[in-house]
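Quick board copy: two proteins, each given as sequence then tokens.
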Amino acid sequence: MVIAKKVVTSQRFSYITHVMEQESVRLAVLQDALERRLDVCSSEGYLNVFPQSLMSSYLVDYIGLVVCTRGSYSFKVNEENMEARAGETLFLTENVHFQIESVSADLEYSLLFYRITPIRDILGNTVMMMRLYATLNPRPFIVLATGEEYALADYTQLLPSASYTESTMFDGHERKLLMLSLTYRLCSIFNRKVVQGGEASGHKIDIFVKLITLISDHYPKERSVSFYADRLCLSPKYLSSMVKGICGYTVQDLVFKAIIRRAIFLMTSTSKTIQEISDELNFPNASAFGTFFKKHTGLSPKNYRISSGE
């Protein structure tokens, strides 16, 4: 009996050691992918610690998701502090500065950063759906309890970090299809979780997505409801009523959110002056931009930049 227990203990120790070695390898691979800025950077499963690259400010020029399945961690994005806990997923938009601040002792997470570029040709206009969340929410990230955390985490195992040097053409096609599948799943989550009023018809949702696309393309210069209504061949009154019913915001609210989000990015990620940002966003002068920005954020552009550490 004693010998049997020793054998079981030895086997368990060997298994734990093997798992730890595998995690160490995957952590090293993820660190290397982040340093080399590969098109896909993946934890390739669950990890308990974050790679060194993310312990200081890291420019995430990817679509990013970090799924927390146990414990918690705190982080900051563009100097804004937040925490994610077990059962929550952090979604990062492109071109944000991300840094891990602290982690709990029992942390378990999976991570996947990927670029849309390799699948843009097969996504077509569907990629515009990825702009929906960014337009509705001017913040550069969102933490959601999607109810699909383990399904999202599975993609990190299916999509390993790689530089697209597949050995056969089938490997490349499989990777693209997995990325396409994940992108559709994210679109579904954003549509269900971020857009309210689930009773809206499919036709109205289609119009709404087209509106988001138009706003993403034209918000720096076009801010009137009539411009977007004309492009959609609708009356301004009908468009306004429909959008309000779907997401709770007016068309102009959505345009303003896009402007604020772009302004925040320019202030926190570039050295452009307030005047240059004002010009890029087509305000008549820096004073008008300052008044607009303070109305929507509570801070003047100068004070916002100071508070963000710029």
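And the next:
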Amino acid sequence: MDLKIPSLNPTINMPKFAETADNVLVLGNGFDLGLGLNSSYKEFAKSKHWPFKNESLYPKGTLAYMLNENKDIDKWFDLEELFYEYASLQNGNIEAKGVTDLVSFNKDCFKILTNALTKYLKEEQAMINIEDKNLPFIVLLYFLQIKGVSRIYTFNYTDINGLASRKGIKDDFECCHVHGSLNEDSCILGVGDKRELHDEYFFLHKSANPNFSSNKLIRDLAHAENIIIYGHSLGDNDHDYFKDFFVDSAEYENKYEGHERTITIFTFNEDSKLAIKKQIMKISNRNLISIFAHCNFEIICTSSSEDVQNYLNKLDFE
């Protein structure tokens, strides 16, 4: 992709957190993939760190068996759907031959999976080499140069501050890791609160994880007027974070006269763009048209050089 890149100034200072945020940047796995990180579930499942290679130890009916059967899925929200499907099937009294306490066995498998994922992503993070013309890097840099109070929320585990520092951006900005971070060995996998699980599999809820902590994403989305969402699928298991925001956005101009809200979503291609629209339709109580009508709403396909160049042409770098 041959793009005309704006002049960048990496020596910037990031304002500290204040009560509310005018500008919010939300990062999903597509951001990491765009940086060149091999962070897809499929790549992890093919790596030396995949913990369930000895299939004889994980008989049919166990969580690990189900994961081994689905190693070719692409996206993390698909993995989380597998957790949900597995726990839901427990109502059908799944049994695993040779496993005395299936729930306890599956808890151990879940911990093993999380620990292995942490090791895998740490190794991948150490090897990443970000080019100056890299689109996610440009968006990150642009966002940090927006005047006023800004927030970054990442659903990834990677060290955004550390990666920024390696590119010459001062790493003193604050970035909230919604689902834990590699630096703190606190990676959180699981399903959202709205998904009903068998009681014995409550541990598969993200909010049940001992590393889960408070964050202000929902509040900040409610107050923000400029929102960038990069590489997040808005999948079912994260609807808890975005429902209020998109419902509110469908009436934004009516409710907040004199204010404008800009929502920019980066996704990979036309297929993922359509999937994003379907998710927003679901989240917003079927008010996607109203969001287009009441906000400056745009979805950019990163695989389209025209989409990307049009976006870059609108940026105002100092």
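Board note added afterward: The CA atoms of residues 10 and 141 lie 7 Å apart.
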